[in-house]
Amino acid sequence: MNITLSKDDSSALCTTSGAELISFEKDGTEYCWYGIPEHWSGRAPVLFPVLCSPKDGKIIADGVEYEMPKHGLARHEEFTPVEVTDSKVVFELHENPGTLEHYPYPFCLRVTHEITDDGFETAYRVTNTGSGDMTFCIGGHPGFNCPLHDGESFEDYSLIFEDYGDAVMSITQEGTGYMCPEIPKLDLVKNGELPLRYSDYDNDALIIENLPRRSVKLVNRETGHGIKFDFDRFDALGIWTPIGKESPFICLEPWCGLPASTDETPELTNKKYARTLAPGESFETSYRVTVI
Hints:
Elements: E1 2-7, E2 10-15, E3 20-26, E4 29-30, E5 46-47, E6 58-61, E7 64-67, E8 80-84, E9 88-94, H1 97-100, E10 107-115, E11 119-128, E12 134-136, E13 138-140, E14 143-145, E15 157-161, E16 168-171, E17 193-195, E18 206-209, E19 215-220, E20 226-230, E21 236-240, E22 249-256, E23 275-277, E24 282-291
Antiparallel strand pairs: 1-2, 2-3, 3-4, 5-13, 6-7, 8-9, 9-10, 10-11, 11-24, 12-23, 13-22, 14-22, 15-17, 15-19, 16-18, 18-21, 19-20, 20-24, 21-22
């Protein structure tokens, strides 16, 4: 089921399938990726309780091994809308027999999308509703149209970091998609700017950790038009466009967690940036998109 939101000159389309925001228009411009299958049929999946490919396609929780699909379970689930207003929707997902086959914990996952005065915000709230500790990762995978307008190209755009500082950029291992300590760190950002080049994604996603400020702009270098992407309470940022397709979009992926590493086991508690909640505890995080 789709739910339409609106506020002033902005509108959004959200879906109960995966709790995704699949469209955002402001002043007649569509900012969200269209989901064209020959490029990537995804739009903005919610990644929970793992990110990217788990080690050997498995997790180990409380000593038991479970099969786990890439990017986790939430993106395949039907969420329930528990609050709907003109400009806001709150979706909710609880454990069910299907999720318990892969992830043994009772939980409540809330995903909120809200149109703001100049963009939108997406928020996640994870609650441990079980009787023991619960470990998880969570993140977003929103795609944004790039270029935004006819007559522009992907490589007319740059990512401009508010404060890059001593951040570290990595690329995953070719073939597996795993983090690998042996792969040298990348030095692609100069004076806070990462110009978009398709060739930088010939292996897979770029992954940035240790940003002093979790804020980046995706803008046309000539016009300055684009978006500002704030992800304050996330630990890392993935940047991705499909390999070899010259696709007209870029994904900005805020993560609490990382892809599996070649030197880790499938044990959930060993995953970098994973969160562990005691019974009854909750964790909240969000990202904001502002049109500029």
